[in-house]
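Re: weekly structure request thread

Next one in the queue (468 aa):
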Amino acid sequence: MQKSAPNPSSRPSENRASVVTVVILTAFATSFSGSSLNLSVPSIASDFSVSASLVGWMVTVYALAVAAFSVPFGRVADITSRKRILMIGIGVFGICCGLSAAAPSFTLLLILRFIQGVAASMIFSTNTAIVISAFPPEHRGRAIGYSLASTYVGLSSGPVIGGILNTHLGWRSIFLLTCLLSLSALALAALRLPADAASSKGRPLDVPGNLLFILFIICFMVGLSRITSGSILPFLMTACGLAAGIVFVIHEARKEDPAVNVRLFKSNIGFGLSNLSAMFNYSVSMALSYLASIYLQMVQGLSSQTAGFIMVCQPVIMAILAPQMGKLSDRISPFKLSSAGMAVSGLGISVFIFVDENTPIPVIMTALFVTGLGFALFSSPNTNAIMSCVQKRDYGVASSLVSTMRTVGQTVGMVIVTLVVTVRLGATPLAKAGPDQILHVIHTCFLIFVCICAIGVFISLQRNKTSD
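Done, posted below.
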């Protein structure tokens, strides 16, 4: 009997399903790891007999490593193999999570967190690029949506799930969960991800440019995050970072094969403005998650677990709609969709300008729902717009820039919150402030973030004109 010929379309379909599954697992694990430890700070500080402010460096060093190393590893992935860089990143990330769960000292835990951040940068710099390469243009938006939905869910649900795990099983269980997720993703990637060829094989690695970028990000983010400490050192570090950034741009503009093609920001206005919009969007989303949690617990008087269950409506709507909005961006201009998303986000967070102790919980949930809708409408189309502006050989770096904008945006958002707290409360810690004081801080912060959304909409409209 003659054997039937294999279906040529089945293999690509299986590969694409595997790609999406790996991307979902890794995007969630890395984002979750960055946000899930916030409510565990007191427990970790108590276990290791260190101050809560010192424990806060666990979050800082992770974010620093992700932001600083994403672009260098994105270029390395373009030159070598994205699958190889992704698998190394997943493996190192999972191992470090497992070791962190058994860390005997805080110093070792801090070192492991930094290495986790470096490994996460390898994942972030390849995830979107691998998705883009695996799908034809007419189906990329939906695939990107799955990745970004997982990222947003990881960021938003991290405090919720992390708080529950910390309460019932201890903070080490958070690392064990991320370790299991990582090892599952690594096994699937090894078995099912298709081999890939270097898209930029033969192109040199711009070592000076990458080193300048790392110096720029580390100095700028550390300085900016400590700007309210009262010392002159953060201002000097921020200035040093900006100087390194200027030198980086000048250097890259003169290179034939730069680490980042900065000329693209000038020649393709849509690319530059889309990245800037992403930074604005992530600054708002990070601050919303933090301030809404503070409001529900310290003003409404709810437990952290109850507050977490209320806040989960935002990541749920994002997880449901982000893939659909990505799919829609394959048919409708992603520039226009993401502009509408920024406007909807601004509408949702504007509610928090008027909240008080007696605001009904359904009103808060509706505001979170609307904001989640806006984030979903923005994120997938905006990333689709960014990736559509570059050639295949630069997918890794473009994916890395999205990751960098996310991390820098989150830092900027928290810096704005910190500055408002300093101006409004002076030396009084937010945890010891009264409900009226906290409300003043919340109202001021969200007024600023509504203005940021308005600026983002204006920028998006300018971008739309260039894309028409």
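Residues 1-10 have pLDDT under 50 and may be disordered. Residues 2 and 405 are 56 Å apart (CA to CA).
Next request, please.
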